[in-house]
Amino acid sequence: MFIGVARYEIFIPASGSLKDKRQVLRAISSAVRNKFNVAIAEVDYQDLWQRAAFGVSCVAESGGHCRRVLQEVEKAIARSSLDGAEIVGRSIEVLSFEDLEP
């Protein structure tokens, strides 16, 4: 069993308020949840209007599958980004469950 974890940092230049930002993030997270079987949540920059960070995780039987899913999630975030939102940073980590300490 493998666990894939990713962090995507997003810049939303057209956002003028936290309400605008929440609208964009809600649309992105809904699109990702509907298309992929992953967990997604806003994990940083909650108090900034134009910046956000998503944490995404998945579990699969192979590390390659986890990595492919997270790469497809990244593409979906880039496609569904409204108002010129763009991914400005990302990190992906895939771990084997057996390698985790008890």
How would you describe what is shown here?
- By secondary structure, this protein is of the alpha+beta class.
- It has one domain (2-50, 62-88).
- The chain is built from two helices and four strands; from the N terminus they run E-H-E-E-H-E.
- Strands 2-3-1-4 form a four-stranded antiparallel beta sheet, with helices on one face.
- Helix 1 crosses helix 2 (63-80).
- The longest helix is centred in the N-terminal third of the chain and has 18 residues, at 18-35.
- It is elongated and about 45 Å long.
- The two termini are 15 Å apart.
- The relative contact order is 0.33.
Strand order of the largest sheet: 2-3-1-4
Main sheet properties? 4 strands, antiparallel
How many DSSP helices? 2
Mean pLDDT: 91
Structural class: alpha+beta
Keywords:
102 residues, 4 strands, alpha+beta
What is the fold's blueprint, element by element?
Blueprint: E1 2-11, H1 18-35, E2 39-44, E3 51-60, H2 63-80, E4 86-96
Antiparallel strand pairs: 1-3, 1-4, 2-3
Question: Outline of this structure?
Answer:
35% of the residues lie in helices and 36% in strands.
